[in-house]
Amino acid sequence: MIDLHTHSLFSDGELVPAEHLRRVEAIGYKAVAITDHADPSNLDFIIPRIIKAAVDLSPHYSTDLIPGIELTHVPPAMIADLTARARKLGARIVVVHGETVVEPVKPGTNRAAIEAGVDILAHPGFITREEADLAAQKGVYLELSGRKGHSLTNGHVARMALASGAQMVVNADAHGPGDFL
User: Which of 19, 72, 117, 165 is most deeply buried (CB count within 10 A of its CB)?
Assistant: First the structure.
């Protein structure tokens, strides 16, 4: 199992990276990305700490820890710049919190994330066929989410991805031990 969308206590997760990594190792994960929630106020705080955790902890575990970030509830006009900043800071995975049906994400977020070339558009809700086509062209993965609420539109996301040829990824969006797949 590889999960590219999980959270630690650097945002709203429950675990420090060491316990997070040990718990997924114990259930057989090959790799896990910690992609804590960020906006302009904390991007430069979170990424270096996840990188430090990966450098310090990974040699002691059989599960690889991938440093990442989830840009969350940021205005669509800021996504491209924040994606570039995240990559410059060393994030190996950039996820954007998509237009889920269970939160008031700004319209246009899905398209801005795809245009910015993020790695994963998380829980994109009722993504349009045009957006899915663009994701296929740009190599942006569309997420099928294991998270309660966000998972309500997985069938729609899968249909759009299959119709457009966009790649899909299944992630837990884990915030605590009971969320890991």
Answer: 72
Domain boundaries, position 83: 2-179
Phi, psi values for residue 70, rounded to 5°: -115, 110
Here the tokens at position 11 are 């945002």
**pTM value > 0.85:** yes
Q: What is the CATH number of the domain that holds 171?
A: 3.20.20.140
Residues 121, 111: Cα–Cα separation, whole Å? 10
CB distance 68 to 4 below 8 Å: yes
Domain count of the fold of the chain: 1
